[in-house]
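Colleagues,

For the teaching module next term, I've prepared a clean inverse folding example: a structure given as C-alpha cells, and then the sequence designed for it. I'd like students to try predicting residues themselves before seeing the answer, so please don't circulate the second half yet.
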C-alpha cells in the first residue's frame, strides 16, 4: 500500500494510520451483520453434544408450553407461537420474538444465551435447564419459518 505524502514528505505515522484504517475496513466488511459469536444451530449442537442425546423438537415444544408444576411456562412470556414480540408476564417489558427465523439476533451471543437460559429456567423450573432441555427447545424454535408463519393455537372451549 503506498504511503500518504504530507507536503511531499513520507511519514511513518501516516503510513501506519493508512494501514490500520485499511485493516479495520476489511474487518468490518467481513464481519457478520450481527455482533454475535455463534448461531442458534450451533447452540443447539453444543447442548446436544453436552447431553449425549439426539434432539427432539416435539420434546422441546412440550417443554416450552408446559408449566412444570409452577405458575409460568416459557410460553407465558415468549408467547405460543414465539414468533412475535410479547410482554413479560410480571414486568410488562417488551420481549422480542424468540424464534430465530423471526428475530435473527436470537441465540447469537453465547454469554447472553447462557445468562437468559439460566434466569428463565430458574423462573419456570426453579432450577437450571439441562443441556437436553435447551437443545430440544432450540430444535423446536429452529423449525419456525418466517416465510410460513404459524397460527396461534385456538383456545379450547
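(Answer key — instructors only)
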Amino acid at each position: 500500500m503506498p504511503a500518504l505524502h504530507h507536503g511531499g514528505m513520507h511519514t511513518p505515522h501516516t503510513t501506519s494510520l493508512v494501514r490500520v484504517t485499511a485493516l479495520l475496513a476489511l474487518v468490518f466488511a467481513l464481519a457478520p451483520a450481527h455482533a454475535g459469536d455463534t448461531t442458534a444451530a450451533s447452540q443447539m449442537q453444543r447442548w446436544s453434544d453436552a447431553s449425549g442425546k439426539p434432539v427432539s423438537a416435539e420434546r422441546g415444544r412440550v417443554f416450552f408450553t408446559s408449566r412444570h408444576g409452577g405458575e409460568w411456562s416459557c410460553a407465558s412470556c415468549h408467547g405460543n407461537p414465539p414468533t412475535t414480540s410479547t410482554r413479560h408476564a410480571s414486568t410488562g417489558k417488551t420481549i422480542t420474538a424468540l424464534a430465530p427465523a423471526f428475530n435473527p439476533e436470537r441465540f447469537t451471543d453465547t454469554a447472553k444465551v447462557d445468562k437468559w437460559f439460566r434466569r428463565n429456567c430458574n423462573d419456570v423450573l426453579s432450577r437450571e435447564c439441562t443441556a437436553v432441555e435447551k437443545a430440544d427447545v432450540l430444535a423446536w424454535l429452529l423449525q419456525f419459518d418466517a416465510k410460513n408463519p404459524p397460527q396461534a393455537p385456538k383456545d379450547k372451549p
